[in-house]
Hints:
With about 170 residues, the protein is mainly alpha-helical. Helices cover about 60% and strands about 10% of the residues. The protein is built from four helices and four strands; from the N terminus they run H-H-E-E-H-E-H-E. The protein has helices spanning about 1-35, 40-80, 115-130, 150-160, and strands at about 85-90, 100, 140, 170. The strands form two sheets. Strands 1-2 form a two-stranded antiparallel ribbon. Helix 2 packs across helix 3 (about 115-130). It is elongated.
Amino acid sequence: NLETQLDEALSQISELEKENTRLDTDLEKELKKEHKNEVIVQYIIFCKKCIQVLAKMKDDIMEEVRIEVEEKTRSQFFELIWKKSSYKDVKIDQDYNISVYNRDELSSLGTLSKGETQVLALSFMAALNKVSGFNSPIIIDTPLGRISKEPKEKIASKLSDYLKGKQVVLLVT
């Protein structure tokens, strides 16, 4: 099963990272034994610190992007959804899994209608597109197919605002 394989792979990665750390420590000790290698040791220490700082910066930037995508998805979802009083929040976790919470703060993703799910997907896609900065064409198959008559016009007008300046291909029946 894939989960078991994933757990085994993550365990092996963890063990290899520990072994790598141990070997790095051993290497530093050996290099310090020889005075002529002191400059190399200092470079290695400096490079390790740089890697740590860059990894922290990457994590911080990834979190900022996730928060921005979450905020844009939430605001666009609540602009488009027609049953605003039914839902309280939209959250996106570290792995970009989306959750929708009702007024009782219970997860409601599984109870969204097909139209509401489509609105959530459109909101998420538009947020990702805006935040990513990539200028690639967007193809949407049947963007309003599952949405009842009243909200269709509102969604159609807002969708053009969300995707302003982007090449959009709509496949409609």
